[in-house]
Write a structure and sequence with these properties.
Blueprint lengths: L6 H19 L1 H12 L3 H23 L7 H20 L4 H27 L4 H30 L1 H15 L9 H5 L10 H22 L2 H6 L5 H25 L6 H20 L3 H29 L4 H28 L2 H21 L8
Helix pairs in contact: 1-5, 1-6, 1-7, 2-3, 2-6, 2-7, 3-5, 3-14, 4-5, 4-7, 5-14, 6-7, 6-11, 6-13, 9-13, 9-14, 9-15, 11-13, 12-13, 12-15, 13-14
Length: about 375
Amino acid sequence: MPKQITMISTVAVCLAYTIALVPGNLSPLIVGGLIAGLGLGVADAGMSLSIELLLMGIAATGLATRISRIDARNACLAGAAVLFLGHGFAAVAGNLEEVIVWRSLAGVGAGVVLAAVNATIAGSSNPPRLYGLTLMAPPLIGAVVAFFMSRAIAAFAHAGAYGVLALLTLLVLPILVVFPDYRREAMSIQPEPLQNHGPGVALLLATFIMGTCMMAYFAFLERLGVRLDLSIERIGDIFTAVVVGGAIGAGIAGVLEKRIGLRLPLVGGVILHATAISMVVQIEVLPVYIAGALLEGITLVFLLTFLLTTAALLDPLGRWAAATGGAFSLSLGAGPYLGGVLIEAAGFEALTILNIAGAIVVIFLILWATKYVRADQ
């Protein structure tokens, strides 16, 4: 039976999702802090972020098919504790090698938290609505964190960035004791064999490609602001508005779920998302930078809500949903390094070509995957 999740447990799920995703959501500021604090190049800063997020994706994906046999509450608590240690030690790291070690630890912890959250939501009585609520939390909380992080980076470079993340995780940890115990619900029935392999794999590929192309741009949003001679504080203020846009996207998705199907919002969202990135990269004007970055934030979370909803409808035990969340995490890991290499080799304009090409492939994959699922089932 699908699980009813209480209000307090919903808060815990939202906060758990937040601490797992906020490092990636605020990666442009973190990249700027690494460049300022350790004197790294764009490719090296992107590589350190890629390793962290790649390990997050591997951990989340590795747990995807096993999460119904694991106590999700304990897994979430353990993952959050590891995440806190990764943030804290990275804050005092003095070179790239040390940063990579501690960010790798943080990535594994975040992946465990992410897998527990995705599977718990997919096993709930109303996955689309809960996904919408959960995806609103990282942007709303991230907006506040971005404001303080930009000031901390201005004062302490990368130590300020990771110190703020460590404080956030420490504040959330006690609340996670009321995280839903998904395992007992899942073990009350005999797990069915995983089905819908074709559309499921297509959905994973679409999520991975979209996320990789997005993150190749997003990780260097701060650098695109520097191109306009903006200070880190000013970029942080703009970024606060951008991450709030993600909450708007989740809210729109929550209103539209079960009303207009899956194909239209997914395909339309992909087109708008690629258009927004092209605006920021190609037009070096401050109002366009702000408008394009805001539109990208809105459409990204909108797309994620519908992608995860589609995955949840493919498997009621949450295995495709957990795997889709893992695929997105893997894409976040691939994107920063790819973006850094492209920028150093061909300039920022290469990011536009990458995102347009990726959008075309993603649309075809989405059309294939959504043939086998309806939003009202």
